Amino acid sequence: xxxxxxxxxxxxxxxxxxACPIDKHYPLELRVFEEKDxxxxxxxxxxxxxxxxxxxxxxxxxxxxELREEKxxxxxxKKWKDKFPPRIVxxxxxxxxKGGDKKKG
Length: 105
What we know:
single chain; 105 residues; two-stranded antiparallel ribbon; 4-stranded antiparallel sheet; disordered N terminus
C-alpha cells in the first residue's frame, strides 16, 4: 500500500515522537511560520545541537547534514529569519547567516 503525500504532512502531535536525527535529543522545538489545515512552513529545532530542520509545503525535512545543501537551505533561513530564534540565525547548524557552512560542528 502506497501512502499519499498528505499522510506525511506534519501535524503538531508528531512533535511528541520526533527526536533529532543527529544527537537523538528529545523534545524538539517547533516554530510555525504559516499554518492552514496543517503546518505549511515552519522549522523544527534541536536545542541541544542547534540544528534546524525546515518544514516546507507541509513536509518536515529532517535530513542528516551530509544530505543538505547550503544553496537549498540558506534561502529558507533568509526568508524566515525574523521568525527563527536569533541564536539559530547566527550559530545554527548545519548552516547559518553568520558563518555559512557549519557541517563540521
